Amino acid sequence: MEETIKFDKTFDERLAEYEKFFPKDIQSVSRIQKHWSSCLDLIVNEINGWHAIWKVPRNICKQHKMQYPSIVLVYVESVDCQQFIAKIEVIAIKSKNADLPDSYVVKLIDLWPTKEQEDVNNIHAIYSFADTLDMFRFFYNRILMPWDYDDDDPKWLSNHLESRLSLYYDIRNGLVSRQSAEELNSLITEARDLQSKLEETHTKLEKDDCSVSDYGDGETVPNVVYLQVRLLEIKHKVEFLENPLIREFLEQEESERYNKKSNKTEPENWLIFPEGTPTEHINFLMSVEEKFGSKTVKFCTSLIEALHHGDFNDIFILNDSQHEIKSSGAIEGGGVLRGLNGPDSTTIFSKNDDTMLECNSESTLIENLTLDVSCSKYGIVVRKGKVTLRNCKLVGNFGYSTQQGITVMPTGKLELFNTEISGFTTAVVGSLNSTVVFNGCKIFSANVGLQMFDQCKLVAKNTHFSDCYDCGIRFETKHYPQNTGNFSILKVLRDIEIENLVGENISHREAIIQEKSKIKLFHYPLPYSDDSSYSTSDEEMKSTDPDDDVNMNETVIENIKESN
């Protein structure tokens, strides 16, 4: 059982330690990077190899067929402080079918030093290094943006350190609306992807020994220009929101708008019809009246706009068409999202590569729709309350090997009736203290149909699992012995009710009960703080991904590899 070192620091503590860490004459990004290299090098030279937990990035999980998120216990052989990378030797790995090599070169910020070390003489140096690595990780994850690497501003640190720290902690403390926080996260995630694509392009050009303008394939130049222009657009949007006065003004406007909407006594009915002939509009209205009665309605040509202007618990009825969604908007707070005829007629899609829909209310109903999740990492995240899908299809991109269809967070409830889910690494994830209900559903073309954890309540009836390449249902537990077999082995578990489950063409077993151990985070007191213990970490082994809170610190270390 490994324990990793973590820290919980307030805004004032973070600001104070950075102001102390950076000399006043170091302001530009290039000089900041050199300063990090020098300081890390001084500390790491005092350590003769050390153990760490490696949080495996999504792209490496995909490359080596590992479940995401995954963590690996490693021995760090050496660190390159100029490149901020480390050479590691794999000691223990979670994913059974992973083809991860015994040694690997990883990013330094993805490593978390453990409390237990082979060389006890390393302990004090490890704690000092863990604190500096925490500062480094937070700085590169939360303060430095992708466009900053090319910024030669001699006063960069003075202009951005405090404002970006303030932005991060305002979001963390709930002082920024969820919609704004969601938009910021989406923009920054997109910016990092754009920067990565630019770096890949420049690496390719360097190998071919030519410049962008010399490349004659007719695609490289326009692609690079697009990436640079889009990165510049995101930079302006994010830096606009960096200003605390602008943030305060926007939040006040949003609050006033919300207060006006919250005075409504009845939900509004929105009809979404992008475009069509007069006859098509008339037929649509007649169908709406026939199915839902003669009610007062509002028209909108865009689902994006309707969700932005609508209110929690409103009803959104979509015509037979394809509708784009950029953020959850009003539906996050509850309501109805309904296709007029059926899932084969009406599709919702998103270009957001993070999460398509987040639900955070007492009750949300999604009906008669196909949700195309081919571009997003997560289809639906049920953060709390109840989400019901009725007569729907949720379709992923199975080539994207780390996708999850629906993730149900603790206390959340998911009900699926006559619904199909296909094309995901994991179709449904049921977290601790969540509830999942299947009735008349089909789960197919997935690695795992349902991933469950202790105290997840399951009611599954008349449901068909097929073409699940790992298993139909996997239950990770600390309370039951391991077992594999057909679905009937699940009947011994508490809070599990199954009836008429069918498994077909499942590569291994229909059901797996898998033991897990817990990796505990060691709370290390800050040298400048009177508080000797912390309940949470502000830069824990997690990211913005919704399942990290569930899995990263409670997971199984399997396939022990003997170190040489």
UniProtKB/TrEMBL annotation:
Q: Coiled-coil annotation: which residues?
A: 181-208
Keywords, sorted A to Z: Coiled coil, Cytoplasm, Cytoskeleton
InterPro entries, per database record: Beta_helix, Pectin_lyase_fold/virulence, SHCBP-like_N, SHCBP1-like
GO cellular component annotations, sorted alphabetically?
spindle
Q: Where is the protein localized? A: Cytoplasm, Cytoskeleton, Spindle
Where's the SHC SH2 domain?
13-247
GO BP field: male meiosis cytokinesis; spermatogenesis
List each copy of the Right handed beta helix domain by range.
360-483
Record's protein name: Protein nessun dorma
Q: Which organism is the protein's source?
A: Agrilus planipennis (Emerald ash borer)
